[in-house]
């Protein structure tokens, strides 16, 4: 199957020559600054909690709390996006994330703010993710969805190549509080372009149960299984793998350098994955990508030195890109047919429910097992769950 995935010169021309619609171009512009701000923080957020002395099982409880709140509140965020428009919803999400970063900056002085974080983060996400996904689903080019997803990831991670390195430098020299404030200021600038253009979108009403109705439909069972089971792995990828790297590397600066190098490789690979998804169908790419994610966790289990962390992280990010681009391409194609916002709301609910289960399981793993054993169990579990991405 891998032998069929070759790229021609014409394929490369189509990667750089496609034209996106206005709504997608505006979303790219928003993502440019938003992603840079996020790249400063994302890798360091769980590390910040760990460095402040919070136990790993308590960090799992933090994200468990967050995703429970997110599942409950998510339909209301979608209702507001349907009524007021996707761009306005994205714009509203930005200052909420600013507040979240400011809350994190205060945790060093007032640890009680730790428990406010999950609620504010959920408030940001209910405005961001339904509108973000619905914009791509509604306005993406049906012939170039994979390519558009590649460009989305090139923007998100391309500008983020320097983010982890700069973030690590800021943490070492000025502390986590300064990092959160720099990210907050950048986010304020990111939201401005969305407020300067008029959005021509008809207001619609959406019931609270709309997403759950989609989940219950027999035709959507494969999506629900892939989202709820496969995306359990994503919680490990986003939270516990960075903490593990930090424990091994023992330096925020070195961690930032490793992640920046890995992201650079991932961006180069991302130029081609979307084109493969468009030319060979997303499912073909997805079916060989999921086992590579599972294999990456075997390498992570074996990564006990600085020399092993870099190749493990490169494989993790390349395989994640190979999975996510065709996955989102398939999801957006289906959402366009059945209702962009309703379908992507159902996807987000399914994803969040899976992460609730995974966070609860990891809280128990890290509470009852020694740290090294707990990480082995965590990575093994994530590798198994990654295979469910193939269900889509």
Structure description:
The structure is a single chain. The chain has a single domain (21-198, 205-391), classed as MFS general substrate transporter like domains (Growth Hormone, Chain: A). 81% of the residues lie in helices and 0% in strands. The protein is built from 17 helices and no strands. The radius of gyration is 20 Å and the shape is globular. The protein starts with 8 loop residues before the first helix and ends in a 6-residue tail after the last helix.
Task: Please provide the ordered H/E string of secondary-structure elements.
Answer: HHHHHHHHHHHHHHHHH
CATH-defined architecture: Up-down Bundle
What structural class do helix, strand and pairing data support? mainly alpha
Q: Uncertain regions: pLDDT < 50 for 5+ in a row? A: 1-18
Please report the first level of CATH classification, the CATH class.
Answer: Mainly Alpha
Give the overall shape, derived from the CA principal axes.
globular
Q: Distance between termini?
A: 18 Å
Assembly type of the shown chains?
single chain
What is the number of helices? Answer: 17
What percentage of residues falls in helices of 4 or more residues?
over 70%
Radius of gyration: 20 Å
- CATH topology (fold) name: Growth Hormone, Chain: A
The name of the CATH superfamily reads MFS general substrate transporter like domains
The count of β-strands is 0
* Integer tally of domains: 1
């Amino acid at each position: 199957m891998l032998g069929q995935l070759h790229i021609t010169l014409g394929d490369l021309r189509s990667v750089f020559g496609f034209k996106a619609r206005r709504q997608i171009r505006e979303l790219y512009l928003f993502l440019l600054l938003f992603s840079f701000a996020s790249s400063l923080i994302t890798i360091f957020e769980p590390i910040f909690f760990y460095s402040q002395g919070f136990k790993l099982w308590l960090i799992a409880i933090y994200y468990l709390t967050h995703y429970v709140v997110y599942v409950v509140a998510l339909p209301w965020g979608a209702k507001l996006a349907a009524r007021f428009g996707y761009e306005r919803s994205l714009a509203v999400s930005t200052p909420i994330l600013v507040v979240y970063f400011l809350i994190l900056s205060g945790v060093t002085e007032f640890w009680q703010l730790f428990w406010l974080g999950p609620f504010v983060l959920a408030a940001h996400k209910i405005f961001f993710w339904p509108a973000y996904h619905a914009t791509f689903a509604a306005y993406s080019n049906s012939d170039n969805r994979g390519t558009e997803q590649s460009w989305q990831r090139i923007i998100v991670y391309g500008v983020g190549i320097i983010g982890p390195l700069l973030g690590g430098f800021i943490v070492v020299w000025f502390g986590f509080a300064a990092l959160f404030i720099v990210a907050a200021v950048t986010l304020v600038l990111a939201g401005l372009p969305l407020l300067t253009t008029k959005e021509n979108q008809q207001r619609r009403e959406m019931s609270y149960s709309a997403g759950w109705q989609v989940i219950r439909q027999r035709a959507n069972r494969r999506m629900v299984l892939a989202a709820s089971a496969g995306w359990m792995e994503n919680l490990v990828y986003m939270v516990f793998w960075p903490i593990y790297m930090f424990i091994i590397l023992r330096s925020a600066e070195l961690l930032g350098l490793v992640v920046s190098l890995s992201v650079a490789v991932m961006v180069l690979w991302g130029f081609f994955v979307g084109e493969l998804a468009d030319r060979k169908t997303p499912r073909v790419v997805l079916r060989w990508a999921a086992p590579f994610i599972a294999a990456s966790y075997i390498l992570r289990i074996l990564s006990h030195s600085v020399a092993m962390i870099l190749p493990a992280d490169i494989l993790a990010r390349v395989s994640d890109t190979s999975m996510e681009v065709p996955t989102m391409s398939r999801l957006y194609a289906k959402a366009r047919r059945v209702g962009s916002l309703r379908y992507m709301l159902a996807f987000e609910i399914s994803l969040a429910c899976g992460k609730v289960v995974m966070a609860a399981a990891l809280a128990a793993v890290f509470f009852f097992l020694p740290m090294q054993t707990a990480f082995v169990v965590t990575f093994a579990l994530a590798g198994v769950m990654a295979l469910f991405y193939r269900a889509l």
